[in-house]
Design a protein that fits this description.
Layout (H helix, E strand, L loop, with lengths): L1 H5 L1 H4 L1 H21 L2 E3 L2 E3 L2 H19 L2 H26 L14 H35 L4 H28 L4 H28 L11 H9 L1 H10 L11 H18 L3 E8 L2 H8 L1 H18 L5 E6 L2 E6 L3 H16 L12 E8 L6 H17 L5 E3 L10
Parallel strand pairs: 6-7
Antiparallel strand pairs: 1-2, 3-5, 3-6, 4-5
């Protein structure tokens, strides 16, 4: 097993996973039917030696790879065991198999071993979460020596597993209690042996640096359960892929909420519609990659200048929306700072400075809702462009002009 693991970069880690799967089946089979009588009780080589060794190799997989690599064979084993039980149930739905000389099909035993393997794999999943958490916590709180961390982690988890696996085993096969304490003593001895073997492997065979950063329980759980992928997916939803800003959909969701909060607290919310001046000519003359770069630089400049409470969105194309809890005078001052920050950006790829035009409308003085606020801010933006661009224009400055 150690040789196969060491050559995983050559033959592929999938080979190691397949060997783990074969060992898992043999280990569970032996744990159910094969016991040895020793002075301190009954032991099963499958449950003590093979399972403890498998657990040690999972820990090695975590140490040298990561939690994401460690979880893949766990899910594979669990799904495979469930499929085996389902297949056995389908076979039992048919008539009795033909009796052939030298063959004795025992579907009842297949049911037992299948359910025992599922129970063992569920325990394995729990064991591995606990094993990694304990291993990392020991490095931060108790001992930072690799042999000590490995042995204590294995001893604690194997003790926990022995108790719960014995419950399932005795319900299915009726093994005596001597198998519990005999197996526990043997597993502690196996923990010491495999701790020594892993230490030798890490010291003399695969000597690359070991990650030293302790990981928290939540982080380990996330990586073993795919939760972090879900969270990353949720994080990506509503984000503009070019700039990383919130997108139009998030604006439609966040805007009304900000206005409701402002209404309850009797505060103002200003909306800035920000547009890059003459952006089409940049794409036409320099190409879309340069245009994309300009959009990202403008987005970064706005992000650096806005306040923490302000919410910035890429509204579409070269247009941005900034919602800020601010009355008109403060919003005008902020908009001027943003305009100046964008104008100050250096653009080696272009022959001119990049400028923006900004239109501002404020709730509740200029509008009663998000759609009306957007209309007013858009109209103010058009006014800023009509007045020569690279400027800020507020809906309040329009005086008595009729609005659509």
């Amino acid at each position: 097993m150690a040789v196969i693991f060491n050559f995983r970069t050559v033959i592929g880690i999938g080979v190691f996973y397949c060997v783990l799967g074969a060992m898992h089946f043999l280990e569970t089979y032996l744990a159910a039917v094969f016991f040895i009588e020793l002075p301190f009780g009954l032991i099963s080589p499958g449950s003590t030696v093979m399972f403890a060794g498998k657990l040690a190799f999972f820990l090695l997989l975590y140490i040298k790879e990561d939690a994401e690599s460690m979880r893949q064979p766990i899910y594979g084993l669990l799904i495979g065991n469930v499929l085996m039980v389902v297949l056995a149930m389908i076979l039992r739905a048919y008539s009795e198999p033909v009796n052939l000389p030298g063959y004795n099909p025992d579907l009842r035993f297949l049911d037992q071993i299948g359910f025992l393997m599922i129970w063992g794999t569920v325990l394995l999943f729990i064991d591995l979460i606990a094993l990694v958490i304990i291993y990392e916590r020991l490095g931060a709180l108790v001992t930072n020596t690799i042999p000590g961390r490995i042995f204590i982690s294995l001893a604690i988890v194997l003790s926990f597993d022995q108790a719960l696996f014995y419950v399932g085993l005795t319900l299915l096969t009726g093994v005596p209690v001597s198998a519990f304490y005999g197996g526990w003593i043997a597993k502690i001895g196996a923990a010491g042996f495999f701790s020594l073997m892993l230490t030798i492997y890490l010291r003399f065979i695969e000597t690359t640096a070991i990650r030293a950063r302790p990981q928290g329980a939540i982080d380990v759980f996330d990586r073993l359960t795919y939760r972090h992928r879900y969270e990353k997916l949720v994080e990506r939803i509503g984000k503009d892929p070019l700039t990383g800003l919130q997108d139009r959909g998030r604006f439609d969701a966040q805007g009304p909420k900000m206005l409701q909060v402002a209404l309850r607290s009797e505060r103002s919310v200003s909306l800035m519609m920000i547009d890059i001046d003459h952006f089409k000519s940049i794409n036409d003359r320099h190409g879309h990659p340069v245009g994309d770069k300009v959009i990202r630089e403008v987005a970064n400049a706005i992000m650096r200048t806005k306040r923490e409470a302000d919410e910035l969105f890429r509204y579409g194309g070269e247009e941005f929306a900034l919602l800020c809890p601010e009355a008109p005078p403060g919003a005008m001052a902020l908009a001027e700072r943003i305009r100046a920050a964008v104008e100050a950006i250096s653009h080696p790829d272009l022959d001119r400075a990049i400028t923006i035009s900004i239109g501002i409308a404020t709730f509740p003085t200029d509008a009663n809702g998000i759609q009306e606020l957007l209309t007013r801010a858009d109209s103010a933006l058009y006014e800023a462009k009509a007045l020569g661009r690279n400027r800020v224009f507020s809906a309040a400055a329009a005086g008595q002009r009729p609005w659509p």
